[in-house]
Amino acid sequence: MNDNQRVRNAFSSIKAPDDMIDKVYSSINSRKNQNRTRRIIGMSMLGTILTGTIVLAVMRFQISNNFLNVENKEYSEETQNSISVIEHNNEMQNKETIRVNGFFISYPFEKNTSLYSLGEYAHKGIDIIADKGTKVLAVADGKVTKAEFNSAYGYHIVMEHTDGYETLYAHLQEMKVDVGDTIVTGEEIGTVGATGMATGPHLHLELHYNGEPVNPLEYINE
Ligand SMILES: [Zn+2]
Question: What is the pTM of this model?
Answer without folding.
Answer: 0.72
